[in-house]
Backbone:
């Protein structure tokens, strides 16, 4: 009787061997109803970011005048919602601060 | 055959690094590989313009209207087609995912990355319904992890993924200087000089382990089981 009755010691296929079983795919590709897919994407915030010529839409840079750098170390409970707010609204961080100041009707800021 | 779409709407999650490291490792093993660089910053197009002799085709300039056609064209010619997507929630991302045999969702162990990754997972689930139930397999890949210790937030994220029954790559892409060096030098990992790049053997081993796991997932027998 063999020492390996159940064949557990058979050599494991190497990655190079497995690669041979992966070949270019001639089968028809996955068909997608784009209208449905786009509707799903839109509902989750995955919207078109291109203009009619297929170029990425870039926000026009505003003339912002002189700037100063503010470096701050914030607690996670403050930083994470703030970063999320900026990402959800496509604000840079200074634009996010400006928006919050506007919403707070901060005195001295208009 | 396999189309691997690398997506996370959060920028800086490690999409381009994961894509390039995996593509290089598979190409070095002799596989034919195309990368469609759909990131507007074009990091992989930039890499291809360097001196690396590794045979990887890179296609830039994918748009919402061309990305599906580009993927379909490449999948019939190459063993692996990677699509490196932009770090934005966009229609380009949602359309590319429809063609995926596997979506890889890289994320750094941070709350912000994880929340954005969850948007990609939600999109995949919704698209599966829109595609009449076709399963879109996916894996979450932790990136820029320490090879030595696991941070508390990392353990929490892994716990949350496990609790939600979300599939996680066992291998993590560790933080390694070599992964940055491939972009700076525009070379393949194996073309870097081990005297100039710290931890290169460890990076090569990590990349190989990740590629092994990917091939295990994508080999026809495993892929059929996943589809069932």
Residues:
């Amino acid at each position: 009787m063999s020492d390996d009755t159940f064949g557990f010691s058979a050599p494991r296929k190497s990655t190079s061997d497995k690669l041979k079983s992966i070949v270019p795919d001639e089968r028809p590709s996955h068909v997608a109803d784009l209208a449905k897919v786009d509707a799903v994407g839109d509902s989750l915030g995955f919207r078109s970011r291109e203009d009619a010529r297929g170029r990425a839409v870039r926000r026009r840079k505003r003339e912002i005048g002189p700037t100063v750098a503010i470096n701050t170390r914030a607690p996670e409970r403050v930083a994470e919602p703030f970063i999320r707010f900026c990402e959800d609204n496509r604000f840079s961080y200074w634009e996010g601060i400006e928006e919050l100041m506007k919403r707070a009707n901060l005195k001295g800021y208009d | 055959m396999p189309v691997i779409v690398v997506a996370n709407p959060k920028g800086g999650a490690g999409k381009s690094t994961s894509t390039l490291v995996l593509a290089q490792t598979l190409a070095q093993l002799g596989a034919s590989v195309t990368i469609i660089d759909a990131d507007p910053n074009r990091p992989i197009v930039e890499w291809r313009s360097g001196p690396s002799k590794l045979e990887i085709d890179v296609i830039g300039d994918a748009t919402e209207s061309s990305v599906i056609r580009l993927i379909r064209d490449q999948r019939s010619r190459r063993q692996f087609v990677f699509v490196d997507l932009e770090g934005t929630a966009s229609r380009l991302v949602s359309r590319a995912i429809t063609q995926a045999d596997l979506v890889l969702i890289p994320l750094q162990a941070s709350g912000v990355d994880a929340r954005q990754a969850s948007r990609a997972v939600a999109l995949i689930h919704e698209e599966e319904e829109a595609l009449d139930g076709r399963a879109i397999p996916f894996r979450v890949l932790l990136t820029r992890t320490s090879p030595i210790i696991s941070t508390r937030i990392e353990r929490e994220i892994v716990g949350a993924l496990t609790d939600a029954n979300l599939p996680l790559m066992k291998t993590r892409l560790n933080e390694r200087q070599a992964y940055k060096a491939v972009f700076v030098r525009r070379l393949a990992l194996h073309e870097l000089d081990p005297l100039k790049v710290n931890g290169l053997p460890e990076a090569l081993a990590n990349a190989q382990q990740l590629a092994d796991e990917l091939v295990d997932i994508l080999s026809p027998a495993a892929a059929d089981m996943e589809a069932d």
